Automatic annotation (TrEMBL):
Alphabetized UniProt keyword annotations: Oxidoreductase
Family membership noted in the UniProt record: Belongs to the short-chain dehydrogenases/reductases (SDR) family.
Coiled coil (UniProt feature): none
Keyword Oxidoreductase attached: yes
Pfam families: adh_short
Keyword Repressor: no
Domain of life: Bacteria
SUPFAM superfamilies in UniProt: NAD(P)-binding Rossmann-fold domains
Protein name per its UniProtKB record: SDR family NAD(P)-dependent oxidoreductase
Amino acid sequence: MSGKPLALVTGASTGIGLELARIAAREGHDLVICADEARIEEAATELRGMGAEVTAVEADLATEEGVFRLHSALGSRRVDVLCANAGRGLGHAFLDQEWKEVRRVVDTNVTGTIMLIQKIGQEMRQAGAGRILITGSVAGYLPGSFQAVYNGTKAFIDSFSAALRNEVQEHGISVTCLMPGATETEFFERAGMEDTKVGAGSKDDAAAVAETGWKAMQKGDGQVVHGFMNKVQTTLANVTPAAVLAQQHRKQAEPGSAKE
């Protein structure tokens, strides 16, 4: 690749990930982008049109093999910016979910994410510099009735991000956690939540969410919640009983709630 800084963006075929990749290209980065679908090649073509040198990797980051494949695609190149954005949702009641789908959510959102962060983070520590942007969620503040596993994984990521930030602060590495609310992406369709109130309701723009996260990362902020109402929600969540939050979430995420 050229002498430009290198950004690695996961979940970059659509949604927030693609928007982060567009910002990186616009701001003079070359890119390695990854997703578990062939559309990652379409994203690469667009980004090359913006002047970036782009390596596209189709890999399932829910598997160790997928993480290794992505990491090996870097070769000897050093990652200046890691946007660990890949994530997967899953709606409906936990007892009704297929276990393989539950496991894939956990392996994508948690296991594969932190495996990749460790690999890249170790290289950043050796270089004495680097920026990591992790896509968490305001969902991590809420007991997610009818979205229990997803919200649980985001609670892990939100907490993990803050802890990692503290550990690496003396190594020239910044860690920022982006916490969006409901965003206009394919998330709810893929999670089977189109008939829920939250799935059918208005959502934030993915480009605006990505911009919020990128700016916070560049400033070295520890975490950023996108949107005023999401900030209100996370603030109230800290002082609201879990049972109340779970019931509120049920009204938004229970199948069929869009008709109520």
